[in-house]
């Protein structure tokens, strides 16, 4: 061999291979591309081709299929692709043909044209791509419905062991009639094959063989999973498609793919960054929390944190569309409730309407109660707030346990204040419940700070209300600076009282207690407390058979100088109360710490006869359900502010005592009431 | 600009081959570059006129190279009065031997395509695949190759088959590139 040129030395051994290729004999070709050769010798049946577009491997034409007499999309191997691509092309056609699903494009024919090059035909897509559709900004729900169909198609392909690896909006065709087709399976590969090659690859690697051309990226940057970029020849699985579907969902929700920028930037971002909140990046778009969570899970950098299957992803979107919460968002109870109402909109509307009608009628019929009702509701809300405050505090309790006693003391004080508020605001509406709640609050406070005096005083007070003097006296309170001196007198007078919720004093016992109470204190200071004691007792003990009229009589006497001065008689048959009193000043409502309402309210009073000569302000009858009030036996009645007696029909006065004009001016009743002067 | 590109392509495709053939025809190393340049220019000018129907590309290419070589030797012989070898004589005499020369260049062209293709195959494979294949070319039996390389016989067969397939593919593509 002579001296070469630029180091070129011919290798004559190779001449025969060139000749072999040139001979173009069928055998040589069958070696090279057996699949292709199967298709050779088939006639041409397509005409009127117009070029539609080109892909990496193929040119696509619109053509008329003479045999089936229909227009089809005809894919031909690109002219600049040589023999090396023949089988790749044929395999793509066969792969699509093996998939039979309403949302996957169909292959009609695979063959070889007169030039000896492979082609295949598919459905001719007349719709627009999902990409165009997203740009036209249709309702989100429409796009999500399409997304479900894409998921169906991909899940089906996965079930056949095929992964698409190039899912993107451009590869999804949608038409006006709801048909959705997943196209361009050129990058798809068979999991089975990957696995087999995986086994084989140990050999390949040992031999250092590279089968795939270098720098050949499968898929489209921006929709490719990170592992598709980093591990070129690695075995990808379904989760790469899950990632691409996540990108598509991202597009659907936000109008844009997750990453933008130059090719290098997009690849870098895909490899290295987690996608961040869509709601904050696209504040103008309506993106529900649950959908955002689904996208973020599908786009997790690590495949293991993504949905393990497309079916799982689809179910999440489906749940969202049918108004359930998704797993990815880990919903709270409130969110679940909200979704429940949203799902059952109609039923919810009917229920709401029914409620509105109901409450409207109640409002109309029980106008009188409205005020009280509102108060009750407010109390309830407040009580609920208190209880949630308590539960919050008790959760905090564990966390705070390690903290300083100062904080614990503060917390205890808070609890005591809560108890105090409950006692003041809702006791008269719901005495037993309030007492139970308050006891719980105070016990908690004492657990936090056993030394808390305010808690002890409160507890002492509650024991008093329940008439459990034994327990009250055990409270170990400092004798000096007694905060409840007016109560301590009675408590100490009956040190053996050990009543509680389950165990109430007898009528005689209670009457005796009220009789005695007045000896220990000035009525004005203790009336509120006694009203509460009675309220609590009444709540537990009263019934249809036992109205506690005698006990109440004792309380009224106690308010007004004792039984020596005041006598109250209740006639149940006529619901009449006769009150006789010599007291200088007559009261029927407690002033200090009481409800301020008439204490006769505990009885159904229709007729009231007041034989009272001391000063009596008629405002003490406020909100009494009385129909007739007879004042003709008494004197020194006063009335100087509004008095609501909703059912008043008749009021009898001694002439010269109160002027009818004054009564008309101040008394409010639902009906007209009669004024009789004697 | 288009011409620049076409020229660069021409140079990468054919320069090595032309230089080699001229060397084989005993053109002095000092004159070879000049003559090669002339051949390339001639190719550049005549390529648009090459008609596939009238003959194979390699015959046409051989003709162009031969003509240039003849003209060169004629101009040289006036001064040197001496001809280096029989092939040169045949060239100048322009008789029936010129077809021998053409045939010779065509043979070299085929070897050139094969060699170039093999270079690409070498780039595509790593490890021992190509080594195994070349031993096969030299007539070493599969059994001996297996013994020498420590691979199994079936691996040797499989490797040879793969390399051969790839070589055929590369030849096919090279021909598409180099033989318009």
UniProtKB/TrEMBL annotation, chain A:
Region Disordered: start-end pairs:
200-222
For bias type Basic and acidic residues, the affected ranges are 206-216
- Superkingdom of source: Bacteria
Q: Which UniProt keywords apply?
A: ATP-binding, Kinase, Nucleotide-binding, Serine/threonine-protein kinase, Transferase
Q: Name one GO molecular function term.
A: ATP binding
Q: Which PROSITE patterns match?
A: PROTEIN_KINASE_DOM
Q: What InterPro entries does this protein map onto?
A: Kinase-like_dom_sf, Prot_kinase_dom
SUPFAM superfamilies, alphabetized: Protein kinase-like (PK-like)
Task: Please indicate if the UniProt record lists Disulfide bond as a keyword.
Answer: no
Establish whether keyword ATP-binding is in the entry.
yes
All copies of the Protein kinase domain together span 46-321
Q: What is this protein called?
A: Serine/threonine protein kinase
Q: Which organism is it from?
A: Pelagicoccus mobilis
